[in-house]
Structure formats: structure tokens, C-alpha cells
Amino acid sequence: MDTQDTSAPTTGFDPDAFLVVPPRTFEDLRVGEVFRAPSRTLTDAHAAAFQTVSADNHPVHYDAEWARRHGHSAPVVHGLQVLAFTAPGATLFPHFIGEVFISFLELSCTFLAEVHSGDTLYPALTITALEPRGEEGVVVTEATIHNQRGELVLSGQHKYLLRCGQTQTDAGTGAS
Length: 176
Hints:
It contains five helices and six strands, in the order ββααααββββα. It is α+β, with helices and mostly antiparallel strands and 176 residues long. Strands 1, 2, 3, 4, 5 and 6 form a six-stranded antiparallel beta sheet that branches. It is globular and about 65 Å long. Mean pLDDT is 89; it is low at 168-176.
């Protein structure tokens, strides 16, 4: 029987040294901070994959002739697929809030312009409000997506619930 000790060494190793960014608390965030996601160019393959996952088979999304007959220059990328580009995990925001994150509360959006295969999207989340609520706080962000022509194609809002008044270490252990 192998009795080799496989526990982690107790000297010199610090897993926190491997964090992408230094973690922050609700109180460390500031209105006006921007969290950008890398740009992405949508392809026909992306649209087809989303169509398969969503089961949305409306011809406006895949039939070029149908789309043209109905006033579109090309098939239109699914709106929910465009909205998905505002996912906070595509930015560094979740790395900053680390262990103080409780939940994604709400989102809303307005689709302002069509998106087509070949368009490059530039998503961003900008903190617009910080609402302390006792031991918790709500972070409100404006969610925007611009295309390669600088046109705003989506505008919306996200709300996240975070723990307040705790260090990242305290949040992970439940201590205060």
C-alpha cells in the first residue's frame, strides 16, 4: 500500500499569487469603471451553432432570400446571441469581485441595430451605480455593444448582488 503524502507543500506556495487581478470588494468599486470584453467577429458557424442550441429556426436568421424579401440586407444574428456577448465572464469583472459575488440579479437591453455574420462586436460593462444595502450591495452596469463601424447595436443594464464589508479572504470563509 502506498502511503505517500500527496498533500500540498506548506512552504512557499500561495494560490492567491495566481489570481488574474487583485480581488476587490464592493467598497473598492467605482462608478465609471469600464470592463471591456475582447472584440469578436461573428461567423456563419457561430449563428448556426446558436440556432441549434436555441432551437430558434425563424428564417430571418438563416435564409438570405427570406431576409432580403423582408427588408434585411442579410440574415440577422439572433438577438439573444448578441446579448450573450455582454456576459460579465467575458470581461475581467468577475475576477475583480471574486468571492464577494452572490448573484446576477437582472438584465435588460434594447437592440438598436441589426447584427450580421461578419460583424465584429465590441462589448463593455460600465459601472453606473453602487447601491449599498446593509451587508450586501448592488452593482449596476450599463451594457453596450458597438460594431466595427462604431454603431451602438445594443444598450442595456445588468445588476449584480455582492457582499459588502468583507475582505476576499473573509468572504471565502464566511467570517466578517
